[in-house]
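pasting input
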Amino acid sequence: MENNRQLTAQQLMRKVSEAWFYVTDLNLYLDTHPDDTRALRMFAEACENAKACTEAFEKRCYPLTVCSADCDSDWEWLVGVWPSQKMA
Amino acid sequence: MFIFSKMTQIPVKINNKNPRLASYILSQYGGPDGELGASLRYLSQRFAQTDKSGIALLTDIGTEELGHLEMIGSIITQLTKGEGAKSFDRYGVGDYYIDHANGVYPASASGVPFSAAYLQSKADPIADIMEDMAAEQKARATYDNILRMCDDPDVTSIIRYLREREVVHFQRFGELLDRLQSKIR
């Protein structure tokens, strides 16, 4: 995660979306191949990576789910790029 | 339950404006083979499924399609952002502007409002999964038609991606159908 410091918000988001896409694709595969041990191992790794990428993004940019929003002084949930908007 | 996540499956970033292209892509929002119909179809049919793989697959693909609905809405919004009545008219979609202006309304490219008549829920796993496989092919064919009309690389890359997902869903539904049929035999 050390090299994440040089990445822009857009590049970090790309990593987050790629990581979660991998989770989704394996998820659908496992629904119809629940006994595939290799896919099960890949899924566990994919989930760990997706969580780490999400954490790296949220630390640098803004919350992606509501419980990650900082509410010490103001409502941080309003911050960030919503899906209808374009990332700068 | 569903928990909202402030991201899309792949980032949507469209630089050019084109209200006409937006009105074509709208068909995958609220048209006969669009993402709203797909998610509603799967998320409704799952209640009558008894096979665990079937319940999971319909829930998970239905959820992914909801995310795709959001991506389509985002493409339409970005293609029309800041465009006024005159621009919509020049692009030949003044009629859409009269009814919805820059709003995203679930309708087909030809202007027919979304209808639940586009989908079925029969409580018959074989009938439902066969409909789902056909639905994935029709959605894929609609994305092919959009690609024939589209020369904006920002849009094309996302439409190609969504098209590919329909092919994957078709594959997974086919595997589920095999599983259900082998249980009958």
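fyi Residues 8-78 of chain A form one domain.
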